[in-house]
């Protein structure tokens, strides 16, 4: 895991001060700033902790910031803290906190690379997606084809599509003439396949290599 500096950023010191040392976490609403510091001090030297509160009631929103002295300490906290904190690097302070909180809530509900335990009902974009998808005239199925200009590694592709619950099998094939990648993916339900296509069609994996994900006829009535 590494963090790249944007060309638009200022000096390296500015980047460290603004973007690489501050993390954003989801916490119990009962936490105080001392509780937050106590939980995260094991990962490095903390400059400050703050809890986001409702401006009207003064109650905690269940979100907070922890700023470390070094980027490596912030990175360690993100990697090693309990997954329930959903720790990520905080946006620069010049982005409104309301906008960042909204983005964070949306993104934190997505499946993580560490597992696929989140049910669809916790993913806002999926809850509203099913109705929108019915407007598409493309016949859907539980089976997908995945095409890539680079060959696939079975275990890696399986892990990628297993982020969506219900994966039944992943069959990787290779064209010996073109060395391109081709795989057939099948899920237990059409809903899972729809979501996988929605999320992974056009996804760059590995970076720079865009995946093409299409529905394959599986012999079932697609109108279901």
Automatic annotation (TrEMBL):
Ranges for the RRM domain?
Answer: 21-95
Q: Which InterPro entries match?
A: Nucleotide-bd_a/b_plait_sf, RBD_domain_sf, RBM45_RRM2, RBM45_RRM3, RRM_dom
Matches recorded under SMART domains: RRM
Classify the source by domain of life: Eukaryota
Looking at the UniProt entry, the stretches that span the membrane are none
Task: List keywords of the entry alphabetically.
Answer: Repeat, RNA-binding
Which Gene Ontology MF annotations are present? RNA binding
Give the protein's recorded name. RBM45 protein
Q: Can you name the source organism?
A: Oxylabes madagascariensis
Question: Which gene underlies this protein?
Answer: Rbm45
């Amino acid at each position: 895991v590494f963090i790249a500096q944007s060309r638009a950023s200022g000096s390296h010191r500015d980047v460290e001060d603004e973007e690489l040392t501050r993390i954003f976490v989801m916490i119990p609403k009962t936490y105080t700033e001392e509780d937050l510091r106590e939980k995260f001090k094991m990962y490095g030297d903390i400059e400050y902790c703050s809890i986001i509160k409702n401006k009207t009631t003064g109650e905690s929103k269940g979100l907070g910031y922890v700023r470390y002295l070094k980027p490596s300490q912030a990175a360690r906290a993100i990697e090693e803290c309990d997954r329930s904190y959903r720790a990520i690097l905080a946006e620069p302070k010049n982005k409104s906190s309301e906008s960042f909180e909204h983005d964070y809530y949306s993104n934190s509900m997505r499946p993580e690379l560490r597992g696929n335990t989140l049910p669809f009902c916790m993913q806002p974009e999926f809850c509203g997606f099913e109705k929108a998808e019915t407007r598409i005239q493309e016949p859907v199925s539980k089976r997908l084809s995945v095409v890539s200009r680079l060959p696939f590694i079975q275990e890696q592709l399986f892990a990628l599509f297993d982020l969506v619950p219900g994966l039944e099998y992943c069959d990787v094939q290779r064209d010996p003439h073109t060395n391109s990648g081709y795989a057939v993916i099948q899920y237990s339900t059409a809903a899972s396949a729809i979501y996988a296509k929605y999320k992974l069609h056009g996804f760059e994996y590995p970076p720079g290599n865009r995946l093409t994900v299409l529905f394959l006829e599986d012999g079932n009535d697609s109108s279901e």
